[in-house]
Input
Amino acid sequence: MTVEVAIQGSDLEAAHEVIIEGEPGITAKLHHAGGEIDDTHKPVFEANCGQCHELRSPSNRSMTPAQWKATVQRMVTEKGAEIDAETQTQIVAYLTSAARASAGLTAELSIAPDAPIGLREIRIVGKHGTSTAWPFEVSQTPDVIETESNNDPESATTIELPSLINGVINPGGDEDYYVFEGIKGQRYVFSVKAYRLNNISQQFFNPTISIFDAKGVELARSNGFYSLDPLIDMTLPDDGPYLLRIRDLLHRGNPDSVYRLTGGVLPYNTYLFPAGGTLPTEDMDQTHPPAETNQALYGPSSPPKANIVQCVIGGENLPETQWQVKLTADDQPGLKQIRTPYGIFPFVINAHPEAVEEVVELQPASDEVATQDVTTYLNDSTSFSSESEILFETKCSACHELRSPSNRALSAEEWTSTITRMAGKENADITPTERDRIIAFVAQEAQRLGELVARQFEHTQHITTPGAISGRISEPGEVDYYRFTISEGTTLGPWWVIFPFDNVDEKGFDTVYPPETEIDLEKEYIGKDGRKIGWFKTNRRGENVFSNVPEDDVTGYALTYLESDRDQNYLLSLGSDDTIKIWVNDKLVFTKYVHRPLRRADDVIQLPVSKGRNKILVKITNGYGPWGFFADIGGYSLTASSERLNSPLSPSLTLLDANGQVLANNAGIGGRRNAIIDYSFNEPGEYAVRVEDIAGNGGAGYVYHLDVRPTKPDFAISVTPDNPNIGRGGTVLLNVTLQRRVGFTEPIQLSVENLPPGVTASESAILSGAGTTQGYITLTAALDAELVPRVVQVVGSVTTATGNEYRRAATPIEIYRIQNNDQTVQRKNVVVSVTQTSPVVLSTELEEIVVSPEAPIDIVVKVDRQNGNRQNLNLTAVGLPFGVRLQRQNTLLRRNQTEATLTLVPNIITTGSNQLRRNPFIGTQQTRPYTIVINASVGQRIVASSPAIKLWLGSRSDTDQEALIGGN
Output
């Protein structure tokens, strides 16, 4: 079929190309406004339609060819207009010509009969580059195009259900009415997609829908169900006509108030369960399913043909329907899209065993009581009364609900930290004595919940490790528990320890003390303040091997040996307070200069060991207060996926020990609804994991996929903008964000593949410094670069010290602002376009600088204003590492100025109120430079960027310093 859509927006001048991203099956052709109208069939139009339809009336002159075609058909089918088929064709041809000439830019989309259903993204390429993306949906429900005028009940458009209406709420308080014949007792669903098509629409469009009976009585209304998108689910009381109305809640409207309204006896909140399956293996026997589950049937064992996973499709207004998912050896682990008559469902393919959540039967009386005790605890806010609980309720309950999903996932240590922090606030009104009593109360509650939970573990479903399970939170407030066994937990130790050496003025990190050059366990040394110190052996863990007494300005070493039956790479999970270095067999494998509190798994690195006995030496330096380290070998990643399954679940994932005590928790990473816990287990044994919805919601469609497997080195990145447009001679900035890094410490090198001819990318990386999560790439177009768009890939790559290479493509993210807050939406591709000119071109004539703590550095920024640009520009810098700042955060370049100087100054924080001591010029061992970029902005919008500048802290040993600009 062919459909013509109106294209509206800014910067569409000289549009000449349509880019359709996603699955194949759609081609497009642009039609521009203007030009001559083909008047051949104008007399036919005037004779048959001119009396009622003025072509250039306000309501008609904005109609698209598709809307005119639908209007003509409506006049024939609903109004009884005596127009034969040939006359219809002639009238539509004239109206199409007139609409294209006057209604603006349109795109004629040809959809192949076998085009896969689902979303594509459409971009328009014009004089000013490539537009942002707009979703275009191919569905299997019959489409109807709204036809004006249907602004009151008398002129309502007649529709046959099921139907999908494409419409727009025009300016001036437009209301669209539709009439349909309903059947008594049928359950009808009316659902609007507006906000879900275009997140930015919430700025100006809040659709509301209502259903009226034949007498005009409003039977149902919805102002929002999926966020701002409304949905009505109702059973009709009588046979007969019903009226459907859609309008903006505040009686607004504009050409961007676009909606797709689905109506009929249709399902919603659909799901596929189970949500995952295993690839076929040689030992699968289709005639003998595994004893643990009857959810999968397997193909012949020789040769393995397929694993057929028996699933159900369900949802609201949809009885559960049997569906088979066939997995073959040609499939790859990851996410597979399963196409069904009820929609497309993501399905996880795994190489590890897959299980399905079992329906828990009631246990014998004693166990049933335990289960009831836990349920009562989770739902009863007054489980027992005490003076300390009353104190908690009085001082804390306004902000902290003890038994909410987010709070019951806290360990006693995390509660202690939280309450201590809250008590330190000026308006807390909590005395030290009250603080200690509240801490004791919540610790008691955490222990009590742990004991109740632990009593259930014997009857909790067991997950094979490595392995996965499909589950769902079927009811509001439901909590799912699973057990799993860790068999290879390894603990480093016992430790030989020596301390304290000096760390005055942060010099201990780089000072080579005797343990780095010799290990003599019998020898004494001179330590801090002239103290005699020597090695001693302890069975304590790393977090308290040095001392339970805080001490300032100290350095300590801990030594242990690890036996290995082969050459291999372990994962080592680290935490430190403060700086840390690690040697394996006298080779430095990890170094990090950082000030931080002691937490588990702040860093997860590869630990290369050789066959036999391996020497492991840890060095810790402390600024002030408590100090110590965590060093745990091995590790598992627990991943609860819901967002990538299109499930409404917002998972809270909690790891517990055999006693029911909380070890770790995650309620989503990076604001996404997929929770991950990376954890190193100190010892083998039984553990448990808890899955729940963070808000306590639930239902049959609240599906999740829980994966438990050994942690492997990996990372994930995202990039914005998704449509960088570069004028010839200009530069644009790409911002790359690190979402997850585990298993390596090397910098993540960034590159851009498939750039348009004449466009170059800067050499950039995300370094492994403390808290570094951003990387910056600049794209610069030559003066003769081709004026073409290209779909590109931003790639991060790491080659570890062991020679393993990891490459990951960045996820494109579009950022837009609503009420001065940044909002994001994930896109399919990054499209880079070259345009004729840039309004502003920035240059610095610098490629590389070295910042030292002695003196500031001036950066002269030159601005080349194109085409008479006279805007005031705000100059600032991004990418500055900790320890370097701009002397002035913002520099105003007035409209008549073309040059400004930005000054970089060292920023060393010393001891002070609520501050940690940090000197970035000590302990810095850069292998790659930081990337900084100067930006010019008008308001919140960046209009130009400088080419990237490489920045080194302190000095560079491999470069002639006289060739670099420094602070001398």
